[in-house]
Design goal:
By secondary structure, the protein is of the alpha/beta class. The protein has helices spanning 68-78, 135-148, 169-177, 187-196, 222-246, 272-277, 279-282; strands at residues 6-10, 21-26, 39-44, 47-53, 82-91, 101-104, 106-110, 152-154, 157-161, 182-184, 200-209. The chain is globular, with a radius of gyration of 18 Å. Bound molecules: zinc ion.
Length: 286
């Protein structure tokens, strides 16, 4: 399989990547089933990029239905070392207006029915998630956003809810009291799985609305969100392009060694099935 080093995962509204010179579309089979869609491999600014719309083209999967493990595993199989993830979010802070960008660097998990790990069933690993995003991609995405000329917030906490409904006002106010910056439904699992797969990961969050905590705000309405989302898409594509430009060939962050001391299971006790299932991820340690 050809090696692609950069992956882009598009969220609501971002189902295709403008400016991407498509080379091929590939359905990647994984031990965890099928990814959300065929992965589009193409050239962006002279670099090969793998693009995947996380909800599938046509937006057919709810956040709870997305096969996050298959999505990240498929990227790993292609050779991806960095993932730029784009996500529509609600703003939980007055100063993050609709249309603003937040380069996320922390997560709070409020999901309830999702598998967030590649481990289990014959192998145990405890991976550090203290700093959930790649520090280098963080800088790259921030600089790229500035170049595009959009208002960008450097750092922010993303609370990930199960969805597909938006929050109640009571929930929204509780999340605000926790000090979170944005609210979304998808990026937490991707960040965890990318870390386990030793892939650098960053979330570029596009603020579409003030969620329902805001006093002047009507309750979140999907048509309103889509309207602002569409405006945000051009911005997001610009940021992706600039980010891809800014990515250097060699990685010198710690993301590529996240599993080095994390596998707890005695090597002689790891099941053959687990070894086989996770070979692309753990193979280098055996
Ligand atoms: Zn990294």
């Amino acid at each position: 399989m050809s090696q692609v080093k950069i992956g882009v995962i598009g969220g609501s509204g971002l189902y295709e990547m403008e400016g991407l010179k498509v080379l091929e579309e590939k359905w990647v089979e994984t031990p965890f089933g099928k990814p959300s869609d065929a992965i589009i491999i193409g050239e962006l600014d002279g670099k090969t990029v793998a693009f995947l719309p996380r909800h599938g083209r046509g937006h057919i999967y709810t956040p709870s239905e997305i096969n996050f493990r298959a999505n990240i595993y498929a990227m790993k199989l292609l050779g991806v070392e960095r993932i730029l993830s784009v996500s529509a979010v609600g703003s939980m802070k007055e100063n993050i207006a609709p249309g603003h960008i937040v380069i996320v660097n922390q997560f709070v998990d409020r999901t309830r029915q999702r598998v967030s790990t590649f481990f289990g069933e014959g192998i145990v690993a405890h991976v550090s998630f203290a700093d959930p995003v790649c520090p280098h991609l963080f800088d790259i995405a921030y600089d790229a956003s500035k170049k595009v000329g959009v208002t960008v917030h450097k750092g922010g906490t993303y609370v990930c809810i199960e969805g597909p409904m938006f929050s109640s006002r009571a929930e929204s106010k509780i999340f605000r009291s926790w000090g979170v910056d944005v609210i979304g439904m998808t990026n937490l699992q991707e960040a965890k799985l990318a870390r386990e797969a030793e892939i650098c990961y960053i979330t570029i969050a596009l603020s579409t609305d003030y969620d329902c905590w805001h006093e002047s705000e009507e309750a979140v309405d999907v048509s309103m969100v889509i309207k602002i989302m569409q405006k945000n898409i051009a911005t997001a594509q610009g940021i992706i392009k600039e980010s891809v430009k800014g990515i250097k060939e060699k990685r010198d962050c710690a993301c590529g060694e996240a599993l080095k001391y994390a596998i707890m299971t005695d090597k002689t006790k790891i099941s053959a099935a687990a070894k086989k299932r996770l070979e692309p991820i753990i193979g280098k340690y055996f």
